[in-house]
Structures are given as C-alpha cells and as structure tokens.
Design goal:
The complex is a heterodimer of chains A (98) and B (298). Chain A has 98 residues and is mainly alpha-helical. Chain A is 51% helix and 0% strand. The relative contact order of chain A is 0.04. Helix content of chain B is 62%, strand content 5%. Chain B has a 3-stranded mixed beta sheet with strand order 1-3-2. With 298 residues, chain B is mostly helical. The chains are: A mainly alpha (98), B mainly alpha (298). At the A-B interface, helix 1, helix 2, helix 3, helix 4 and helix 5 of A face helix 3, helix 4, strand 1, strand 3 and helix 5 of B.
C-alpha cells in the first residue's frame, strides 16, 4: 500500500460527505435550470427504474459534444497542471477477471 | 463420330433444352417487370443488414458504428439526467478526460465527457468514447487525481468494449445492428427508442463483475501514464465504502458493481506488486479552483 497518499482514504471520505451535504452546485442559477429540466421529464435522480424508462435526448447529447476538448487543449491543460506522460505497461489480469 | 461434331437432331434437342432452361430461370411466368427488381433490391438490402448485424454480433463492430451506438445510448442516459448546466465544469472534465484517453491505444475516438445532474453516485461509459459521471460522485472527489482515476476507469470500459459485449451477451444482440443505424423516419425513431432503452438498461443491470475489476486494473495504469497518482482511485473507492449502504444515492451503484471491499483488496494487491515504485507527482489544486469558480456561479 502506498504511504502518504495525497487524498487521505477514509477520513477524506467523511470530509467529502460533509461537502456533499453542502451541495457544490445548489447555489448556482445554472444548476437550478438543470433541476427544472430534470423535473419536467419526471426524473428525480438516476434510479434503476428511471434509467429503464429514460427517453433519448439528442439535444442534450449534441450539447455534450460541444464541450468536447481537442487533443491540443487537453495536452496544453495537462502541461499547465504539471502532468507529464509516463511510459508504463498494463498490469496482467488477475484471477478475479477469469 | 467426333465429339465436337454432333448430328443435327442432337443439336436441335440441345437448343430446345437450352431455350427451355433460359425461359424457366430467366423469365418468370408472369413476365418481366421492374417490381421484381425492387423486391430483389429489398432482399439484397435485408441480406446486407443481416450481414452487418452478424458482423456486429461476432465482434466486428466498425468504429463508425461503435460511435453511433454510443451516441444513441448516451442520449438515452442524458434523457434520464441532463448535464449540469455549467461550462466551467464540463470543460474541466473534458480536458482531463481527453488527456487520460490520449494515453490509451484508442486516441482516435471522439472522447466526450460530462457531469450529469443527478445526486446519485455513479459513472457511466458508452461505446465510442462517451462518458459521464454524476454530480453526486463529482462532489465526493477531493482532487484532480481522483477525477482522473474515475475517468480512467470509465475510459477502460470503452477501450475494452465492455458495453458492446454486454449488448451482445444480452437478448438484445439482434438489435445491435439497428442501434448503429441513424433514425430517419417516425417508425424508425419509435424502433430506435426501444433499442436505446435496451442499451440504457444495461446501466441499470450493470456489467459483468469481471469487467469492473478489469477497468480498475487498466484504469490505474492509464491514470499513472497521464501523470496522475494511480492510488487516487483507491481513495475514491474507500470514500464510497464509507457511505452508508442504505443511502439511496448509492443504490444503483452498489447493485451494479462488485463489493467495494473486493475491489479495494484486488486493486491494492495488484498495485503493490506492479506499481509500488512509481514516481507520483504532487497533486495540483485545480479541482478546488474549478469548484470555487462553480460556487461563484461562473
């Protein structure tokens, strides 16, 4: 197990849960608009039943595609964030995958 | 008598036989009309479509079809929960996601990421490079390394074509070919809606557990290749394990994934053997910075 993991495991989870309760998006107007759209189609969350009854929303898909990043902008952003690519082989499959 | 010099009666009989055969097979008794050509064209089209479906079922899914299937399935999921209406957030996950995907051997897919407006904790991958995580999961993330870890897990599902396999394995495999076709008319759109629902329902059922373990294993390597802390995915899984199992926001996730304890145990064991000497860069503070912008409403 790695020592000194930056993000802190169990305790970080508790901190996250308290942040979740505060609701990162709850105060933004943009978020309220999305909630309204959600309510219009009768979806309160993403439960099993709601997934099963989902209706295709092509407009929302096209909106999602407009946010697509280019390779150039992704590379540039990674560089700004001091993320350097590393060569690393994939880990062989374990027994649980058989 | 030489073989090539047939007698006149024999030549006549052969000619009659030839003409009879020609009339039998070339000209239908009802006469030749263009309606028959139309039927033949329809049959040829059906055969072509059947062959395409068989190819898809056998695993020969063309990239173009894979992307079209992914678009349709993702549009269904977005119908259940739309994107969080925040450009800063969507741009952020797209840049990180694309960077991680560039470390894979499927750089050429149109990698598209998003955060959907659901308080539930989950993430979904669709064929062709369409990936979303829920607002509920995003709000649990502590740093960019954890975001990269979650996205790398989903990217691995796409690279390994796990969702396509799930469609093939399900009773919907005969529909796979139709999923790859764009809706052109009302009748087709109705059929397409049924197919999209079938594809989306895999999210409610979940993938085979072995695929989840596989995506964990490949995901940590992709994240590390992108310069992120691969152990951050373990931290996310640990955070999720700390949430009460009766919490409704976790219901679908827990029903559709292997037990978190099993995933943690497997991943820790693999990483300690294979990634123990990896050089982990210090975490940056960009996720916090993006969250501050979102909180300000920008």
């Amino acid at each position: 197990m790695k020592q000194g993991t930056s993000s802190g495991g169990f305790l970080s989870g508790l901190a996250s849960l308290s942040r979740k309760a505060s609701g990162l998006f709850s105060s933004s107007e943009a978020s309220k608009k999305s909630y309204k759209a959600t309510a219009t189609i009768g979806v309160r969350g993403l439960s099993e039943e709601e997934i099963k009854n989902a209706k295709a929303d092509i407009r929302e898909l096209e909106k999602m595609e407009r946010f697509r990043a280019s390779n150039k902008s992704a590379k540039s952003y990674a560089s700004e964030g001091k993320r350097k690519p590393a060569k690393l082989a994939h880990i062989p499959r374990s027994k649980v995958e058989e | 008598m030489p073989a090539n010099k047939l007698s006149s009666p024999v030549r006549s009989i052969k000619r009659i036989l030839f003409m009879t055969l020609l009339m039998t097979f070339s000209v239908p008794s009802s006469g030749f009309d263009f309606g028959d050509l139309g039927d033949l064209a329809k049959k040829a089209e059906k055969l072509k479509e059947k062959s395409k479906q068989l190819d898809l079922v056998r695993g020969k899914v063309k990239k173009k079809d894979e992307i079209n299937i992914g678009r349709n399935v993702m549009s269904g999921l977005l119908g259940a929960a739309p994107l969080v209406n925040n450009k800063t957030l969507q741009d952020y996950v797209n840049r990180i996601g694309r960077w991680v995907a560039l470390q894979s051997d499927r750089k050429d897919l149109p990698w598209t990421f998003g955060v959907i407006n659901s308080p539930n904790v989950n993430a979904f991958a669709a064929p062709g490079g369409y990936i979303v995580l829920t607002r509920g999961l995003y709000e649990l993330l502590e740093n960019e390394d954890q975001l990269a870890g979650v996205l790398a897990h989903e990217i691995s599902h796409v690279i390994e074509k796990h969702h396509l396999d799930a469609i093939k394995d399900s009773s919907q495999k005969e529909l796979l070919g139709s999923l790859a076709v764009k809706a052109t008319d009302r009748k087709h759109r109705e059929k397409m809606q049924k197919l999209v629902n079938a594809g989306v329902q895999i999210y409610a059922r979940g993938l085979d557990k072995k695929y989840e373990f596989g995506a964990d294993r490949r995901g940590v390597v992709l994240a590390a290749r992108a310069g992120y802390d691969p152990y951050a995915l373990l931290d996310v899984l640990t955070t999720l394990r700390s949430i009460n199992t009766s919490d409704q926001s976790m219901a679908v996730f827990l029903n559709t994934h292997p037990p978190l304890g099993d995933r943690l145990q497997n991943l820790e064991s693999l990483m300690d053997r294979h990634l123990h000497d990896i050089n982990i860069p210090p975490s940056n503070q960009r996720l916090q910075s993006v969250n501050r912008k979102i909180a300000k409403g920008s």
